[in-house]
């Protein structure tokens, strides 16, 4: 029997390609479930042609870390009236005192020429990455994803009909289906590798039942980062409300006399198990929040005051404020200070503390060597050697 061969360049490139494809799929699925595009998104219509063709993917920068929006930027935003409220990718063509004017490159009129009000910062989820003014696209990525999604939706419907349950439908059902599919792929891969290892009876340095401890620790770090950061993103939200600036008084809460300011009470409640630190701040013009960072334990609630000012011109306007939530693993003033610099800095520090608290004990316990799950390993060569000793 020959010596085991090291990984070839083709094998390494193939595995790297599989990892990248897995990361892209994970980013797309996570963005779909959270309603916020993560790293990658795709065009579902032809409104941005020829910049972004229908079915093309494109690289996005989350609004939390993107530079301020400027005229000419391509943004992904959550509309109020068009596209059924689904995330829309259009270009900012102008900026007014009340928000941005947007338009698809293939359209002749702006979104605001229709029923859509000017877009506020609180509605923008991400910006498309542009290099030298050109959007970075990935041809046909969206077409492939939409094909896979259509197939998964068909499978969801068939399973729900067969099993008589609706829990497999919708975004949560899709996530469950993808999780089961991923576990199935992992199980199949483990079986195939086990059979391949059974055929190879030679002694190798990479023995069955022996795992790299560093790989296990790295896996825990990645998993905890995804879970903690993803949960905080999901807990945070932007609240939007339409107001009418009118020249008359009204009992309707959304009608405010021009130039006047009205205060509204917003309840912040923690229904989760873990304590959280909440921070509320304006996400559009005409909104003021008189609030400090608050740490809430399970079941706690607090009322915050949000002041909304009507513009001096009459009309319909969109106003919004954002609520950020962080796990309360750091003192409240520390989280507030980091948030004041940038929300992602507070989220990164919080995630780092959580990961360190869970992973450090395991890292100390496991060390940097190997984990052996079998006490001994015998090969054909060893059994032959034992037989020869017995015969002698």
The SSE string, one letter per element, is HEEEEEEEEEHHEHEEEEEEEEHHEH
Helix content: 25-40%
Report the β-strand fraction as a percent range: 25-35%
Mind telling me the CATH class of the domain at 22-141? Mainly Beta
Please tell me what the overall shape is: globular
Instruction: Determine the number of helices (DSSP H or I, runs of at least 4 residues).
Output: 7
Largest sheet: 7 strands, antiparallel
Q: List unreliable stretches of 5+ residues.
A: 1-9, 201-207, 375-379
Task: Report the CATH architecture of the domain at 22-141.
Answer: Ribbon
The CATH superfamily name of the domain at 22-141 is Umud Fragment, subunit A
Terminal residue distance: 25 Å
Number of E strands: 19
Subcellular location: Membrane
Main location: membrane
GO molecular function, one term: peptidase activity
Keywords: Membrane, Transmembrane, Transmembrane helix
Structure description:
InterPro entries: LexA/Signal_pep-like_sf, Peptidase_S26B. With 392 residues, the protein is an alpha+beta fold. It contains seven helices and 19 strands. It has a domain at 22-141: Ribbon (Umud Fragment, subunit A), CATH 2.10.109.10. 38% of the residues lie in helices and 26% in strands. Helix 5 (332-341) packs across helix 6 (343-366). The longest helix has 30 residues, at 170-199. The model is unreliable at 1-9, 201-207 and 375-379 (pLDDT under 50).
